[in-house]
Every structure is written in structure tokens, then in C-alpha cells.
Amino acid sequence: MKITDGLFLDCFYEVAKEYPELKADDIIVDDLCMKLVTRPDLFDVVVLTNLQGDIVSDLCAGLVGGLGFAPSANIGDHIAIFEAVHGTAPDIAGKNIANPTALLLSGLAMLRHLGLTENAAIIENALLYTLEKGIHTGDFGDKNIPAVNTTEFADAIISNFGKTPEIGARKILANKPGTPTPLKLESNSMMISKEDEVETIVGVDLFIESEEQPIAIAAKCQRHAGVKFNLINISNRGTQVWPTGSVYTNLVNQYNVRFESIDDVPLNQQDVIGLYVSMSGNFKICSFELLNMWGNKKSYSLAQGQ
Fold first, then answer.
1. Domain boundaries in the chain?
2. pTM over 0.85
3. Cα–Cα distance measured from residue 116 to residue 82, given in angstroms and rounded to the nearest whole number
4. What is the CATH number of domain 199-298?
5. Dihedrals φ, ψ of 24, to 5°?
């Protein structure tokens, strides 16, 4: 994650240079979560990776009433998808109790994307008016006011078309041409990433299954290292257990065995496959990852304690 998140951050600042009028900075994700709860006014747009974005978007949904109020839009060059953040919610499927607001807000974003701004404003004003009147499904709202089901909530919104809420009313703007997108593609588009530095293979992480102790695993691995590899370390759940480690480290039967090339001599995939085949004589190998370098920069992280 240090490498991939770091690459994401580098790309963010590269793109930010094209928009000097916008303030761009970064923040550690745990600090971000705290500030989103205590000072959400500090943020306008938050740019995140898929993993962090999934977590933080749910946190933000909680700040505005829950996942029932969280819409989403995925907009590409040729395709746009609009959906509620909460997904399918199979535990309440068919019960007619879901809050349809998130799906409705996603639909409004789609209407605006298509240029149907007038239609979107009318529907959103009706939604806001309905909420102001205290009409709510069971997941939010004043518990002293009886909740309505999904159908009744939708019917209430429809009945309020043309009405204007007291707070946050959307201005009625005439429909206009939507976001232009090319509709015909003759072939699959491809993005090619070109490295600024020469990429070389300098080792491999083999993820093996074993119930043996680290010293026994190391003895077997060293026999397979041959003339091109050095056994560097063995880790278990991210913590180094060989050549140094603590007997108090609780182990699981999944190890990461790291080999690096002797004297940093570049390797090729055939070298790695040969080591894989040799090691498979003693261990079940669950997966492996190449250790690469870009120029003089490692593109992999060290184990805790390495």
C-alpha cells in the first residue's frame, strides 16, 4: 500500500499542477476521518483510492443520515453509471422498508448529466419539501412521527411535485444539452503507463503454506536458492520471524519467504519460475509477487522488523 498509495499521491500532485487556481494538499487517512467528523467544513472535494474511498464514503454517509442518503456517480469518457452507495441490501429485500432517497439522488445526478436540469430541480425540490414535512422511512427522522414504507415515501414525493422547500430550494433551470460523450467505439481503449526509470526484477516474495517453525523453513529454502538468489527474510503476518524475530510472535501456517538476487544482479521471469518450481518440491506455494526496482528506487516495502 505504501507503494500504490504513494503512486496515487504522486499522480494527484502531477494533475494538480494543471489547476493552479485550486488548493491541493494531502492528509493521512485516519486524521481525515477524525476531521470529517469534527470539522467537515474544511473539505470541498476529497480524492481517494478505491479502498480508502469505500471506507470514507460510508463514514460521510453517516454524517448526513446514513447510507440511505448517499448517492454515487461513476463517470468515464464513454459510460456513466449512477447508483446508490448502499448496494442491494439483500437483508431487507422485498420488505418495502428501504429509504429510496439515495437512489433518487443518484437518478437526479444522472438527469443533470443528461442535461435535464429542469426535471431534476422539480424532483429534488419535491424531495426536500417532503423531508421538511417530517415524512420519513424507518431508518431516519423523528421517532415520534410514525415511519412510512418505501411506496408511501415515494408517493409523498410525487404528490409534492411543484412545491418549494423553505431551505435549500433548487433553482429551476431550463433543460440543456447533456455532457457530450462519444457513443461509438471501434476498439477497446488502452491506457499505457510508461516508466521514467528502467524497471528490473531483483527478487520475489513467495507466499507458502507450512506448519513448520521459521528456522526449519529457512533451512529448506536456502537449499533452493541456488546461485542467483539469497534468502533475505521470512515473515509471518507481516512480522519478520527469520533471521531475527521473537519466539513470542504468534504464527499462522502462512509465511512470506523473500528472496533477492545476489549482488543486486537483475533477474528475469524464467529465474523466478525456476525458483518457484524448485520450492514447490517442499512447499505449497499459494502465490508470489515480483520485487521490482525503478532505477534506484525499490517498488516494494520491507517486512516489519526487516
1. 2-159, 199-298
2. no
3. 15
4. 3.30.70.1570
5. -130, 125
